[in-house]
Design the sequence.
């Protein structure tokens, strides 16, 4: 019985951790997104391809991908497959894909 309880407890804690991670989604305010869009339009980058990386929120970009700075914004950007991707520079995780 103890084995079943500890398995259940471990499963519950795992699911709770996933829920907590999802609750920490990054929210880009519309005004900030407008600033980012305008900056990217004025400072166009060549689109890159990143084999083996799915372009999804939460995906991690490899260190070989150069991230560009947007003034007064803590996130960085890169253009992948002709889509502007905002990235957390600390974790290199995709936080938003701007179409």
Sequence:
């Amino acid at each position: 019985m103890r084995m079943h309880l500890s398995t259940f407890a471990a499963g519950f804690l795992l699911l709770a951790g996933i829920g907590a991670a999802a609750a920490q989604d990054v929210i880009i305010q519309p005004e900030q997104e407008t600033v980012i869009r305008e900056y990217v339009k004025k400072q166009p980058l060549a689109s890159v391809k990143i084999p083996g990386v799915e372009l999804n929120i939460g995906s991690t970009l490899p260190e070989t991908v150069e991230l560009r700075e947007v003034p007064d914004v803590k996130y960085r950007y890169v253009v992948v497959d002709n889509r502007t991707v905002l990235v957390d520079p600390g974790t290199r995780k995709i936080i938003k894909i701007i179409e």
